Amino acid sequence: MRSHLLNDTTADRYRRSVTEGIERVAAKLATTNRPFTGVTVDALAPRIEQIDLDRPLHDTTAVLDELEEVYLRDAIYFHHPRYLAHLNCPVVIPAVLGEAVLSAVNSSLDTWDQSAGGTLIERKLIDWTNKRLGLGPVADGVFTSGGSQSNLQALLLAREEAKPGRAGGEPGDKLATLRVFASEVSHFSVRKSAELLGLSADSVVSIPVDHDKRLQTVALAHELERCEPDGFVPMAVVATAGTTDFGSIDPLPEIAELCARFGAWMHVDAAYGCGLLTSLKNRDRLAGIERADSVTVDYHKSFFQPVSSSAVLVRDASTLRHATYHAEYLNPRRMVQERIPNQVDKSLQTTRRFDALKLWMTLRVMGADGIGELFDEVCDLAVEGWKLLAADPRYDVVVVPSLSTLVFRYIPAAVTDPAEIDRANLYARKALFASGDAVVAGTEVGGRHYLKFTLLNPETTAEDIAAVLDLIAGHAEQYLGESLDRAS
Ligand SMILES: *Cc1c(COP(=O)(O)O)cnc(C)c1O
């Protein structure tokens, strides 16, 4: 069994084995003509169920054959131009190369003595990101597993900074007075974080959005004004730079003003919109982000990086101390004096992947402008798609895209019952998924069911969009036709 360990004597096996795997994936990419096969849970589950994990095959080729059956054949392929559903991007090759290197070397980024150069590379990428954000001279941050964890950590820091007085009274009472403000279309991880952080059930105040799905600052100002008289402490405002559902960007400069006036921590959730940091054309859409106290970026969304790759950035490095614990075995306090850089001092995680390497390889091979170009392309495509939808009488489309999301609904002229239209749209999404021809997402707008394209693939064309709209209309019409038959 020792021949399976990756070391100096197994270089050949390593090369052969990984190459064989790469060949399978490459062949798959070359022959995939749909984003999905439409396989059902009932069809796939038994294939996986019947495999006896206690009876290994002892043969890589045989295992890859089996993997074809249980995974590769029916996976959802984000690189396909008709995958239009969630915030998943096709990945760039330099990042995949980074992934191969980082898992083979297997550095762990918690301490210097488990990573050496890896720690410095991660730190340099944090500095690079902070420079692009404009967070100032004492900014810092750390890579995380994703936007949800970045938001959690940012709100942890905000909570610690806001704990009123910190003296006298029960800490529990104090937590109960903390309030977090976020728009009604902010990411659900904000609420989840508040709960995990022990804030009260009604701690997250939902602020209404305007017609363009941007947080209404007048409503926010009103809520912030009410805080003190009502005995609450404004802990944080979460501005979203690229909402998950609409790609809308909250008015960051106005929110920054309000945060400054009311002493609230400004967190910008740019999990989606962060790609604009590399855009030569659209960077100004993030204006105001430089005033944030903390920022979430998901490189695995708009930087074309493989999952996971994310970071939380902070204006003031010293606030990261709220995540610091010293363990004698790992990162004893004396190491701080010895100036040994242990990233675990800043992180919620301990053992941690060297995900930063993927971004490093990407920047070194393609450069930031290269990423920006790709993201600009999908933002342009969204505008084209919006025009198609706006001109199409079969569809109702909401908000002109700020990033690369389109939200729309099939509205047949002959049907007036909105619940029936909901069902037709739901059916169309499901039927499309089952066909595997395209994958689209859905969401709710004003209590009604809408469909959603999240465009992150520069290979997707306006023709793809038009074709998928025809497919959706076809499925919806079929549903309505059958529905009529059922009624008569
Ligand atoms: C995707 C997303 C998140 C969550 O990020 P994960 O990487 O999926 O954990 C948070 N906020 C916004 C706005 C997002 O779009």
Question: Could you outline the blueprint of secondary structure elements for this entry?
Answer:
Blueprint: H1 11-31, H2 41-49, H3 60-72, H4 93-105, H5 117-133, E1 140-144, H6 147-162, H7 171-176, E2 178-183, H8 189-196, E3 204-207, H9 217-227, E4 233-240, H10 252-262, E5 265-270, E6 294-298, H11 299-302, E7 310-314, H12 334-337, H13 356-365, H14 368-391, E8 395-398, E9 405-410, H15 418-435, E10 441-445, E11 448-454, H16 462-487
Parallel strand pairs: 2-3, 2-4, 4-5, 5-6
Antiparallel strand pairs: 1-7, 6-7, 8-9, 9-11, 10-11
Residues 87, 146-148, 151, 187, 189, 240, 242-244, 269, 271-272, 298, 310 line the site of pyridoxal-5'-phosphate.
Description:
With 488 residues, the chain is α/β, with parallel strands linked by helices. It has helices spanning 11-31, 41-49, 60-72, 93-105, 117-133, 147-162, 171-176, 189-196, 217-227, 252-262, 299-302, 334-337, 356-365, 368-391, 418-435, 462-487; strands spanning 140-144, 178-183, 204-207, 233-240, 265-270, 294-298, 310-314, 395-398, 405-410, 441-445, 448-454. The chain contains 16 helices and 11 strands. Helix 5 packs across helix 13 (356-365) and helix 15 packs across helix 16. The longest helix is centred in the C-terminal third of the chain and has 26 residues, at 462-487. The model has no long low-confidence stretch (mean pLDDT 96). The structure holds pyridoxal-5'-phosphate. Pyridoxal-5'-phosphate binds at residues 87, 146-148, 151, 187, 189, 240, 242-244, 269, 271-272, 298, 310. Pyridoxal-5'-phosphate is lined by residues 87, 146-148, 151, 187, 189, 240, 242-244, 269, 271-272, 298, 310.
